[in-house]
C-alpha cells in the first residue's frame, strides 16, 4: 500500500496523534504558547495551531489569524528539535562522597519516552542531519543523543508558507522534506487533506493505521504547486558561492566593527540555532550534601567566558565573537564537517532582539571583500 | 579566594551586615526555609541581627554585606568589617551598585533633604550612594533586587566545599532560551533589558511574560547603546529609554553611561524633564 503517496483527511491528523501516542511516543508538535508557535508536547490534534499564521522579520515575530483552517500554516516554530534531542541542561553523572571515597551513582538520568515529532520542516531535518554527524557520527559519540535519536519518529510537513526570515533554498534545502523522515505530509486545502509520503518502514506501519487512499494526479499537482509557491516565497536569500573563502579573506573586514556595534552578545542566535552545539560542563553540589552532579549545559561563543583560557578571554571584543560565530557557521564548518553549518531557517534573524541578519552581514562582507575573493562580487 | 583563604576553617563563621537597604536581601537568607537548618549546620551564624540577638565577636570568615554606603559613619564601618573578614560578599543591587537610592547621584541631595524632612539639619548623609566596592576590596558580588536565594546557597555551598561558585556573568537571554521561554521582546514587542542584564534570576520576569527590568545589573559585556537605539527606533521615547536604566542599578557604570547618553538626547530634543 505504500507504493506511492497517499491521501488522508483532516480528521486523520487526530488519529495520527493517537496512533503515535499508543505506540508509546510523546508527540511533540507545533502549538501556540505565550504568543508564538513552539514545538511542544501535545495530547491531541486540538492542541495544534489550526488557523494560526505568523509574521516574521528581523527582530520581530507576531502571530496572525489566518483566513483559512490550515494547521501547518506557519514558518519554522520558535524552538526546533534541538531542545528535545540535545537538552539545554543534561545530567552527565551523579556521584556520592562517603568519607574520602567517591563513587559515581548514576550515569543515565531519568529515562525519557521516545519522541515523535509532528510538523517539523525540511530545515529541521537538515539541522538534525548536522547534529547526527557532529554529535553521533564522529570518533566519540554522544551516547545519550544517540539513544534519544534512535527512538525518534519524524512526521515532517511541507513548508507551505515560509517566513520573512527564511532562506532554506539558498542553503541547499527547500520547502519539501527530502530526507530523513518517517512520514512527510503536505497540507492541501479545499478540501482540507494531507498528501502523505512514506520514508521508512515505521512510517509505513503508522500510515497503515490511518484511513488513507492513494493520492491522485490532481493531489500531486497540488503538492507541486504548494512547493513551487513556497520556493518563491523565501523572505531572505544568501549567495553561497565561494562563501568559505570569502569569510576567511574577511578576517579583518571593517564589517565586523559595524556589526560589533549592534551585537548585544546576548546569545539568543546561538540558542535558537538548530545546528549550534556548543556546551560547557558544570559541577553542581548542594550545600551540606554529599551528592554532586556533573551537568552539560548549552554555551555560546557570544559570552566572554566561552573563550576564556589561561591568561584571559581570547575574544574580549564583540566584533571578534560575531566573526567567530558566522565564520564557523559559513566557512570553518565546511572544513570541519564538509557542509554548511547554516540551514537557512532564519531563526537567528527573527530572534535577535536587535534584528541582526546573517544574510545581510554575509552580503556586506561580500560587498566589502577584495574583487579576487569569493568568485563574482 | 574561596579555596585558599578558608581551608583552615571547618565551619566558617558567618556575619551579615546591613548598610543603606531595605533588608530584602538578608531576608532572602531567612527565606531559605527548607535549607535554613542545613545552612545553620554548614556555617556558624556568628552575627546576624535580623535573625538573632546573639553575637559572636569577630573576626569572621565570611561577611555578607547588604546595602550601599550613604553616610560618613558607613564609610568607617565598612572599613572595619573588611578588617575583620576574610571574605566579603556583597548581597544585591544596593551593595553592588548603589541601589535605587543612587538616584540621588543624578540630583541634588540637599534639595531632596529639604523637601522630605522637617529638620534636615539632623541628617548626616553623603551626596552620593556608592557600592561597597567603592570603599573596600570585595571578593564576590551577588546581584539582584533582591538576590536569588539559589545563588546565595550556591555561594555558601562553594565556601564550605572550597570551590569556585557558579555565578554566570552572561545575559538573562541565555536563561530564557534554556528554559524555553518565548522572547517577550521579539514576540510581544515588550521592552526587555534581558540582553544587557546579568543572568542569575533564572529569567524570572520573562517567564511571566514581563520584560526584564534589569535588577541584576549589567551583564559582562552589555551593549546598552545598541539596545537603546533599537528601543527608541521601535517607539520608546528617549526619556523612557533613560528611565529604564535608572532603577536599582542606576549607578552601575554601563547603566549610568547609557542613561546619561539618553539624558543628553532628551535635553538636545528640548522635550521632557531630563531628571
Description:
The complex is a heterodimer of chains A (377) and B (275). By secondary structure, chain A is of the alpha+beta class. Chain A folds into 2 domains: 213 residues, no CATH class; 126 residues, no CATH class. Chain A contains 12 helices and 16 strands. Chain A has an 8-stranded mixed beta sheet, sandwiched between helices. A 4-stranded antiparallel beta sheet of chain A has the order 7-6-14-13, with no helix packed on it. In chain A, helix 7 runs antiparallel to helix 10 and helix 8 crosses helix 10. Chain A is globular. The termini of chain A are far apart. Chain B is of the alpha/beta class and 275 residues long. Chain B folds into 2 domains: 160 residues, Rossmann fold (3-Layer(aba) Sandwich), CATH 3.40.50; 98 residues, no CATH class. Chain B is 39% helix and 10% strand. Chain B has a 5-stranded parallel beta sheet with strand order 2-1-3-4-5, with helices on both faces. In chain B, 51% of the residues are buried. The interface between A and B is large, with 46 and 45 residues. Chain A: It comes from Actinotalea lenta. Chain A: InterPro entries: 4Fe4S_Fe-S-bd, 4Fe4S_Fe_S_CS, Helical_ferredxn. Chain A: Keywords: Iron, Iron-sulfur, Metal-binding. Chain A: This is 4Fe-4S dicluster domain-containing protein. Chain B: Keywords: Oxidoreductase. Chain B: InterPro entries: Hydrogenase_assoc-protein, NADH_UbQ_OxRdtase-like_20kDa, NiFe_Hase_small_N_sf.
| CATH class group of the largest domain in chain B | Alpha Beta
Structural class by sheet pairing and helices of chain B: alpha/beta
| Overall radius of gyration of chain A | 22 Å
Rg value of chain B: 20 Å
H and E order of chain A: EHEEEEHEEEHHEEEHEHHHHEEEEHHH
CATH topology-level fold name of the largest domain in chain B = Rossmann fold
Q: Beta-strand percentage of chain B?
A: 5-15%
The CATH superfamily name of the largest domain in chain B is NADH:ubiquinone oxidoreductase-like, 20kDa subunit
Most extensive contact? A-B, 46 and 45 residues
Q: Give the overall form of chain A.
A: globular
Strand order of the largest sheet of chain A: 3-2-8-9-10-11-1-12
Strand order of the largest sheet of chain B: 2-1-3-4-5
Count every beta strand of chain B, where a strand is a DSSP E run of 2 or more residues: 5
Write down the secondary-structure element order of chain B: HEHHEEHEHHEHHHHHHH
Protein name (chain A): 4Fe-4S dicluster domain-containing protein
InterPro entries (chain A): 4Fe4S_Fe-S-bd (IPR017896), 4Fe4S_Fe_S_CS (IPR017900), Helical_ferredxn (IPR009051)
Keywords (chain A): Iron, Iron-sulfur, Metal-binding
Pfam families (chain A): Fer4_22 (PF17179)
